[in-house]
Amino acid sequence: MNPLEFRDAGDLARSVRQRKVSVVEVVTALQERIDRLNPKLNAYVARVPAEEVLRQAQEADKQVATGKPLGPLHGVPIALKDDFETAGLRTTDGSKVLSEYVPRRDATVWTRLRAAGAILLGKLNMHELAMGGTTNNPHYGPTSNPWDLNRIPGGSSGGSAAAVAAGLCFGSLGTDARGSVRLPAAMCGLVGIRPTFGRVSR
Predict the structure, then answer these.
(1) Strand 77-81 relative to strand 172-173: parallel, antiparallel, unpaired?
(2) Could you tell me which of 70, 77, 110 has the C-alpha nearest to residue 7?
(3) Residue 146: partners with Cβ closer than 8 Å, 6 or more residues away
(4) Strand partners, 173
(5) Which residues contact 57 (CB under 8 A, 6 or more apart)?
(6) pLDDT mean by block of 10 residues, the chain; 202 residues
């Protein structure tokens, strides 16, 4: 079996439902891993406070214990590219202009992921304004490829790919107009899916 941080999201969700692993155990392991590896990778540019993530994990474990209906991603920690709006958490779009922007609402895709039971760990670095292929961000620093820190992870969703490949989250969303999910996925050894245009809310 893969180490905890490299299990796929579906497998982790099944293990949580079957009480083979606790959500608190999962998020604690990931927080420690992010603390250790992110200074080298610079994948995360904003994080949900650790105590809030732990609170959500504890609540998720309680829901498992009480036998409540669970979503397909119940207890699965994920992260989002920093151009998805998240209420109360800074969303910069990789730009200095939006460096202090804190949305009042959530993007539809995050609303749906949360309803499915996912837990948000933080926001991930990206090429400025999603317009480039390196994720060498001039304002928040470059993101490194976890397989070789001297190489790029691709862009514009480079932070998303680097975080997943390094085991810093169990999945991530990126955005893709001209390859911004597909190129980082290829460069970091992952599978990236670009939905049909219009299938997912922008």
Answers:
(1) parallel
(2) 77
(3) 37, 41, 153, 162, 165, 166, 188
(4) 80
(5) 22, 23, 24, 26, 27, 28, 75, 119
(6) 82 96 97 98 97 98 94 98 97 97 96 97 98 97 98 98 98 94 97 88 75
Query: Is 156 assigned a catalytic role?
Result: yes
pLDDT for residue 162:
98
User: Among the residues of 9-115, which ranges form H helices?
Assistant: 9-17, 23-41, 50-65, 108-115
DSSP bridge partners of 46: 123
Is 62 an active-site residue? no
- Residue 137 three-state SS: strand
Can you tell me whether residue 50 is helix, strand or coil? helix
Q: Is 141 strand, coil or helix?
A: strand
Q: Which of 132, 118, 137, 120 is nearest to 41 (CA)?
A: 137
At residue 115, φ and ψ (nearest 5 deg) are -65, -30
Instruction: Establish whether 180 is a catalytic residue.
Output: yes
Spatial CB neighbours of 36, under 8 Å, sequence gap ≥ 6: none
State the catalytic residue, choosing from 22, 95, 144, 156.
Answer: 156
**Distance (Å, whole) CA 134 – CA 184:** 9
Catalytic residue chosen out of the listed positions 22, 144, 172, 180: 180
The answer to whether the beta carbons of residues 75 and 57 sit under 8 Å apart is yes
